[in-house]
Amino acid sequence: MTDRNGRTVPLWTESDVRAHVRAPRSDDDKYRRGVVGMRTGADAYPGAAVLGVEAAWRSGAGMVRYAGPRRAEDLVLARRPETVTAVGRVQAWVLGSGTDAATRTPEETSVLRDILAGDVAVVVDAGALDLAPEGSAPRILTPHAREHDRLRAALGLAAADADRGASVVETARAVGAVVLLKGARTLVADPDGTLVAVEAGTPWLATAGTGDVLAGIIGALVAAAAADQPRLDPRRLAGLAATGAWLHGHAARRASTERAGGPITALDVADAVPAVIGAVLAPVA
Ligand SMILES: NC(=O)C1=CN([C@@H]2O[C@H](COP(=O)(O)OP(=O)(O)OC[C@H]3O[C@@H](n4cnc5c(N)ncnc54)[C@H](OP(=O)(O)O)[C@@H]3O)[C@@H](O)[C@H]2O)[C@@H](O)CC1
Ligand SMILES: Nc1ncnc2c1ncn2[C@@H]1O[C@H](COP(=O)(O)OP(=O)(O)O)[C@@H](O)[C@H]1O
């Protein structure tokens, strides 16, 4: 794939995906499969918590731990009673989906800062992106275009220009983390300047909540990988992020195909993830 400046940006492929999805093994227990911790959802956006938790379960998490406001927690448990709300150890965090930095409590800010200063890999979305630059934990940031521009402003960078690839590489270098820039063509840059593109989806994906689903998918992939190898380097994290975007896009296509090519909702995307993972892991005949 050649971009508008004539540079070649590699497209993430199914074989790349296969190398980043952990198949369950007979000696696994739930903890060996990877535990995802989610601090998502707010009173204004409780549904985002449900969407992310659902997506993490559907992407093969051994356990999902959820912490958030009471209303969001009740909705999460109503949809997924499998979810654990007791505090405990996790192999990956997902922060910020369905939250707003402007209304975050000082206590929650302090908890998020502690997580971002830790060793466990973190997927940073939506209302937690303002804290991402201070973090030292291995991080995957998942902004859409407006969030990307806000992040760049906080880093002292100009708004992204038409060359999205150069912009996202610059952002990843400045923030010292993997940055996944969402769009019809999703770009993933690591802090060393490696860039890949994911073109897996359908325009039907442009619907509320699909970004919350993506964060949950990536959280589950990172937790599974970290359960095997606790220190994930940025290249590996970028691969897991691109894999999440590929699965998300293909799940959307599958969900739409199941509806005669018609519209889909964010939950439809999450529901289609298992079949996409199953097809990726199926032995080649
Ligand atoms: N189910 C859930 O719980 C969901 C929860 N979600 C959560 O919501 C949070 C905020 O995420 P976001 O992407 O909406 O935030 P953001 O980048 O600030 O965009 C705001 C911009 O949009 C624009 N705008 C608004 N209305 C518009 C209109 N009718 N037509 C055109 N433009 C319009 C508005 O422009 P303005 O009205 O100011 O002119 C402003 O520029 C986040 O935490 C996310 O996770 C979502 O995932 C959805 C499902
Ligand atoms: N035109 C499009 N074609 C394909 N995918 C799209 C398109 N527009 C958005 N997407 C995808 O839809 C998702 C939207 O995420 P986001 O903007 O965070 O939505 P939300 O905040 O409502 O969850 C992203 O994964 C993005 O890549």
TrEMBL record:
Cofactor requirements of the protein: Mg(2+)
Entry keyword NADP: yes
EC number(s) recorded for this UniProt protein: 4.2.1.136
EC primary class: lyase
Domain YjeF C-terminal: 13-280
Gene: nnrD
Organism: Microbacterium aurantiacum
Catalytic activities: (6S)-NADPHX + ADP = AMP + phosphate + NADPH + H(+); (6S)-NADHX + ADP = AMP + phosphate + NADH + H(+)
List of residues binding AMP: 182-186, 211
A single MF term (Gene Ontology): NAD(P)HX epimerase activity
Alphabetical list of InterPro entries matching this protein: Carbohydrate_kinase_pred_CS (IPR017953), CARKD (IPR000631), Ribokinase-like (IPR029056)
GO BP annotations listed: metabolite repair; nicotinamide nucleotide metabolic process
Statement: the UniProt record of this protein carries the keyword ATP-binding: yes
Job of this protein: Catalyzes the dehydration of the S-form of NAD(P)HX at the expense of ADP, which is converted to AMP. Together with NAD(P)HX epimerase, which catalyzes the epimerization of the S- and R-forms, the enzyme allows the repair of both epimers of NAD(P)HX, a damaged form of NAD(P)H that is a result of enzymatic or heat-dependent hydration.
Assembly description: Homotetramer.
Family: Belongs to the NnrD/CARKD family.
Protein name: ADP-dependent (S)-NAD(P)H-hydrate dehydratase
Keyword list, A-Z: ATP-binding, Lyase, NAD, NADP, Nucleotide-binding
PANTHER family registered for this protein in UniProt: ATP-DEPENDENT (S)-NAD(P)H-HYDRATE DEHYDRATASE, ATP-DEPENDENT (S)-NAD(P)H-HYDRATE DEHYDRATASE FAMILY MEMBER
Superkingdom in the source lineage: Bacteria
Pfam families: Carb_kinase
Residues that coordinate or bind (6S)-NADPHX: 48, 98, 144, 212
